[in-house]
Write a structure and sequence with these properties.
The structure holds two protein chains of two kinds. The two termini of chain A are about 40 Å apart. Chain A is α+β, with helices and mostly antiparallel strands. In chain A, helix 7 packs antiparallel against helix 8. Chain A is built from 13 helices and 17 strands. Chain A has three domains: about 70 residues, no CATH class; about 160 residues, Jelly Rolls, CATH 2.60.120.1440; about 150 residues, Tetratricopeptide repeat domain (Serine Threonine Protein Phosphatase 5, Tetratricopeptide repeat). Chain B is mainly α. Chain B contains nine helices and one strand. The chains are: A alpha+beta, B mainly alpha. At the A-B interface, helix 1, helix 2, strand 12, strand 15 and strand 17 of A face strand 1, helix 2, helix 3, helix 5 and helix 6 of B. Strand 17 of chain A pairs parallel with strand 1 of chain B, so a sheet runs across the interface.
């Protein structure tokens, strides 16, 4: 106790109490994360739509090119009908949505809805009794296609075609970069195009980014991952040759990463002990080593956490996880009062990831460590660098306080 | 539509790369902010993917073991509404944390008003469930007790306690978040610690944790 009023003792005491607060499960599970994402995007779309309405009232008289249209387009027997509503300009069959407003909505008589985003361009190229073919010239299209037994829908974007039977998805197309981005929220679609001539099935919870110029296609998992693909995604981090099809029945046990996400830190440590901690650190996959290191950190097994982080760095050199491990090692050293070690790790992180997600924090914490270790010259130098790089960062005021007097 | 083969190790798509969920794109905060401002396809979703966990965690830690999904949505909607006022896009994280703290305080005020109107507490604890602070049991009762105790202190002290001692923000970060000087931040930290310590010390369920060490 350094102060007569017991300030330090009280602060040390509440650190123990804070551990109780950390027992609150703060992690957002995958399904809630995905649901929250959907809810947010929907709310933003509604806001834009309302904004469009307001904007329309103000500018409609002045902007002659933009027209609010609500037209029935198809009335042929046996075919779907659709209406387009929104602030749009038409150019032949093409519908151009005002960039500053909300989306234009195409509502079909079977209940399907396709929204063209602000600044987007599209057209309905073909309508049948079972669906339609819509061309996305540029921008984003949000689709909610009602599933019916014979439904046949397609969205064409550049050289890519997204074939749909019943689903909800967002598709974006940049004509300039020839990049397609597809996010599946429900159902499944088949995408055909450069490097995908036989078609690629994209399922709910997946995102596809495809570049026509290079033929690259990158399939990642949204947060509501398909069970059959989750192991493949994990394997990808291990340098697997290619994705493998895995039946859901083959993964009855949660992975360490899943246990970690569930807050089951002890479960991860017990699993590692069963497998062998040394074996895990020397031969385990990157996700498992990361999970073990994090679980050890969360239960304050600092020695094991440090070994895990060092294993990330030595075995997976160059990976994002290895870079981040340097920052975490610095923070741990900092917390343990080993300021020189902390500074060395922060420097390592900053050298490896000068624009990484922890760059501002690493530089700011390095500054604090220098100040607390009495290195005035070093602190001034880092203050200068911090203010140059992060003038509005969290440590900016602190850095100003430690700049030389003018 | 023709049948399409599923993924197979025997038939990999030669240029297809499967990546783990949450794998960071080569996109820093400034780029992401620019993308959102330009209404780029998918940018809003990427913002959510990057920061939903952070916002969720801060709100849970401040508000306690309760449903915070509405508050998370509120924080993000405010972020998108106010993003135009963010002068330094690389400061997105701090900007968003500031918004999140504002949302948390609003929610605390709302709950306090509701409790006052309903004349009842949100949290009821059965002390017979209280375990010892030995780390071998799930101290659910202690968690509930802690947040019931935090309901008795000011929102400002509660926020400072959580950010400093639970989230582990250093004093410089905390002073930026609270928008006050380092000296003032130190005083506020000491004040929050003192108040929390006094209340916890008087609570038989929480007092043992004051002695616990990591």
């Amino acid at each position: 106790m350094k102060h007569a009023d017991g300030r330090e003792l009280q602060e040390e005491g509440v650190v123990g109490l804070a551990r109780v607060a950390r027992l609150v499960d703060e992690r957002i599970d995958e399904s809630r994360h995905a649901a929250g994402r959907e809810r947010l995007l929907l709310a933003l779309a509604k806001q834009r739509r309302r904004s469009t309405g307001r904007t329309l009232i103000m500018v409609a008289a002045a902007v002659s090119l933009l027209t609010v249209i609500t037209v029935a387009v198809e009335h042929r027997p046996g075919r779907l009908e659709y209406r387009v509503a929104g602030t749009v300009a038409t150019d032949g069959d093409w519908i151009d949505v005002a960039p500053s407003g909300g989306p234009a909505s195409m509502r079909f008589s079977d209940g399907s809805e396709l929204d063209l985003g602000p600044g987007s361009r599209g057209r309905v190229a073909e309508v049948t009794g079972d669906g339609a073919r819509v061309v996305l010239g540029a921008g984003i299209l949000q689709a909610r296609v009602v599933h019916r037994p014979r439904a046949r829908w397609a969205v064409t974007a550049g050289p890519y075609t997204v074939e749909v039977t019943g689903t909800a998805f967002d598709v974006g197309w940049s004509a300039a970069s020839e990049e397609l981005e597809l996010s599946l929220h429900d159902g499944s679609v088949i995408v055909r195009g450069p490097s995908l001539p036989d078609g690629l099935r994209v399922a709910a919870g997946q995102r596809l980014v495809a570049r026509a110029g290079t033929g690259e296609a990158q399939l990642s998992l949204l947060l509501t991952a398909q069970p059959s693909l989750a192991p493949s995604a994990r394997d990808a981090g291990l340098g697997a040759e290619g994705p493998a099809q895995v039946h859901p029945a083959m993964r009855p046990l949660p992975t360490w990463s899943e246990m970690l996400a569930d807050g089951n830190f002890r479960g991860v440590l017990e699993a590692a002990e069963t497998r062998g901690v040394d074996a895990t650190l020397s031969r385990g996959s990157l996700p498992d080593v990361v999970a073990l290191a994090d679980a050890a950190r969360y239960v304050h097994e600092r020695g094991l956490a440090r070994r895990g982080l060092l294993a990330e760095r030595s075995r997976f050199t160059g990976s994002a996880e290895a870079h981040a491990a340097a920052f975490v090692l610095g923070s741990m050293a900092d917390d343990g009062g080993a300021r020189d070690d902390a500074i060395r790790w922060y420097d390592t992180y900053l050298a490896e990831s000068p624009r990484g997600p922890f760059a501002a924090e690493a530089l700011g914490r390095k500054l604090v460590a220098l100040v607390e270790s009495g290195d005035t010259a070093g602190a001034r130098s880092v203050s200068r660098e911090y203010l140059r790089r992060f003038p509005h960062g969290a440590h900016a005021d602190y850095a100003r306080d430690h700049m030389p007097e003018p | 539509m023709a049948s399409v083969p599923e993924f197979s190790a025997d038939r990999p798509f030669s240029r297809l790369r499967v990546v783990a969920p949450g794998e960071p794109r080569d996109e820093d905060d400034a780029t992401l902010v620019a993308a959102v401002r330009a209404n780029e396809p998918g940018a809003a979703g990427r913002m959510w993917d990057r920061y939903a966990s952070l916002v969720h965690r801060i709100l849970r830690r401040i508000l306690g073991p309760t449903d915070v999904e509405d508050a998370v949505q509120d924080a993000f909607l405010r972020l998108f509404r106010d993003l135009g006022s963010l002068r330094e896009p690389s400061a997105l994280r701090s900007f968003l944390i500031g918004i999140t703290l504002h949302v948390a305080k609003s929610e605390l005020r709302r709950r306090r008003a509701r409790r006052w109107l309903l004349l009842s507490d949100d949290v009821v604890i059965d002390e017979s469930d209280a375990p010892a602070a030995d780390g071998h049991h799930e101290p659910r009762a202690a968690v509930l007790r802690l947040y019931a105790m935090l309901d008795r202190i000011s929102d400002e002290r509660r926020t400072v306690f959580v950010l400093r001692f639970v989230e582990g923000l250093d004093l410089a970060e905390l002073s930026a978040m609270l928008d006050c000087s380092l000296a003032t931040t130190k005083r506020r930290v000491a004040d929050a610690a003192r108040r929390v310590h006094v209340l916890a010390a008087a609570d038989p369920l929480l007092a043992p944790y004051l002695e616990a060490r990591p």
